[in-house]
Amino acid sequence: MPAVQNTDSIRHFARHLFLVSKAYASRKKAAEDVDEHLRRMGKSIVRMSLSYSDISRLKQKIDALIGWERKYAKLFRPEDKETEELKSHIAALEQELRNEKEEKYSIISENNEKIAQLTESLSGIKDQMKHLHLEKARRQQRMQALDKKINEKIDLHRYYHS
User: Fold this and answer.
1) pTM of model > 0.70
2) What is the tens place of the pLDDT at every residue in 41-61?
3) What's the half-sphere exposure (Cβ side, CA atoms, 13 Å) at 81?
4) What's the half-sphere exposure (Cβ side, CA atoms, 13 Å) at 153?
5) Helix 52-76 to helix 2-47 angle, to the nearest 10 degrees?
6) Every domain of the chain and the residues it spans
7) How many CB atoms lie within 10 A of CB 3?
8) In this structure, what are the phi and psi dihedrals at residue 155, rounded to the nearest 5 degrees?
């Protein structure tokens, strides 16, 4: 199990590293875009060719930079108490779910065991009933054979009229 935990922790680390590097690169590019746009606007002011579209594009680039700054900062923000409480509550619910699954499987296992016992008992009873039925049929045949033998040896007509 330690190898699985080690693999999970490496996977978590790699995923976190990927997210951080992507956010860092995007944040850096957004900051460079804002700087470049400001440089061009500075040149435009000198040439007196600044337009409203330049200002709206600068606003969009600043908004993008702020968005990437938020995403980047989120990755390094210490967890607050509410997040910790929610994580512990989720962990408690997951543990409760695991316990209920184990209980369910235990009950199913017990029921399957009882069903197997009852099936075995029923099979035993069926075998015993077949055996008793065969014994009864054999006894009936012996009784009929004995009755026939007795009837052949004794002349009933003579026995009752004498």
Assistant:
1) no
2) 767 665 666 666 777 777 788
3) 0
4) 6
5) 160
6) 1-78, 124-162
7) 7
8) -90, 105
